[in-house]
Amino acid sequence: MRKISAFKIIATTVVAASVVTLSACGGGSSASSSAGAESGDLNIIAYAGVWQEQYEEAVIKPFEEKYPDITVNYVSKRSSAEMLSALQGQQSAPATDVSIMDISVSTSGNSQGLFEKVDESMVPNLANVDEQFLNADGYGPAVGVDAIGLLYDTQAIPETPTSWNILWDPQYAGKINVMAPPSLIGISLTAITASMLGEDYTQSIDQATAKLQELAPNVQSFAPNPDEYQSVITGQTVLGLGQNGRGQYYSEQSGGKMGVVFPEEGTALQINTINLVKDAPNPEAAKTFMDYALSSEAQSAFASALFYAPTVNNADVPADVAARIVPTDGSLKIIPLDVEFLAANRDAWTDIWKREIIGQ
Questions:
Q1: CA atoms within 13 A on the CB side of 64
Q2: What is the pTM of this model?
């Protein structure tokens, strides 16, 4: 299968109907056909919180039932940046087999030699991954797709917001939370703000920085605790940014107290990749798990559990779930994120936020 370069720049076409086909097509390869191992240990590093809870329930537990002789050890981190730091610290003696993290961070890991390339002989279900979600150089593919949404308190703001500009509304001063860089949320807000101003963020973010400086007085916390979702649900804040998938989950859990919406100016995709750690201590078990994670059953189960769009073409997603995940009909405006540029400039943007935005 040809690996195209669209994986480098996540553009509007990624959300076209041809990209994530939510259909009831045939089952494709199963994990049992993987070249990996069916016994031993498996060490995974991935997200903490509700993501971990739902992934363990939807993917890891069924995997353990299928492979009862594989022991899964899950290490959780709040962000992809934290995962990358942990893997960098292990590079001389890796203790992790598989990492699931944001594409902009895994791209950096690829360039640093932290991850191995994979192919269909190692992970047969790569054959079912849409071409848009295969890494052009053969590194770990995308395993789930989400997007940044605007979180809002439906009681304090009963009319659904339609624009990101609501964040700058003075009536909400001190009632907004924004997770600052190196979080993808802050990185995405920078790109979104630049796009709103007609600025090419790959050339400069001077205009975006000035606009975000105006936002800073409205922000109660740049590191919401316990998280950006609970901050809105408990009434600590009334507006924030978060991933749509978690937002949909918490909206349901809160009885609709918190809503999540994609504003008309567009949003940025959040794509997670699944990666084989270079010199992993348990590489065969890792390949077995990667294959299962890309199976139609695992992809469909996690879509239903946490509203992430699948990356395989043979997933069967219920209609009510498909209506709440990232739209794939071209109706959602996507602001392209150049993942290689962001991997190289994440630290610089983080420094700009610390010096020029958070300190305002």
A1: 13
A2: 0.85
Place of tokens 């316990």: 226
How does pLDDT run along the chain (360 residues), one tens digit per residue? 333 334 555 544 443 333 334 443 434 443 334 456 778 899 999 999 999 999 999 999 999 999 999 999 999 998 999 999 999 999 999 999 999 999 999 999 999 999 999 999 999 999 999 999 999 999 999 999 999 999 999 999 999 999 999 999 999 999 999 999 999 999 999 999 999 999 999 999 999 999 999 999 999 999 998 899 999 999 999 999 999 999 999 999 999 999 999 999 999 999 999 999 999 999 999 999 999 999 999 999 999 999 999 999 999 999 999 999 997 667 889 999 998 899 899 999 999 999 999 976
Go through the domains of the chain in sequence order and give each one's CATH number: 20-145+271-322 (3.40.190.10), 147-268+335-357 (3.40.190.10)
